[in-house]
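Hi V.,

You were right to ask for the full record rather than a summary. Here it is.
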Amino acid sequence: MYTVVVDPLGVLEKLSHMLGASLTPFFGRWMWFLGPPRRTPISVVFGEPIVCPKVEEPTKEMIVEYHQKMLD
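Predicted structure:
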């Protein structure tokens, strides 16, 4: 969505230490500083969470069962 500029010389890090605040320049669409974000597809999922037990070696049946719960 945004491009974060990386400072290989450490200038932003030194300025951040001097000012006591983090300086992180973000560039959005058309390389505008703090401009509108790039269009990026975002997946949104609604529903009740599926609680899965932690099993070291799950069986194929367990995998199919929880996969089916996810699809329902």
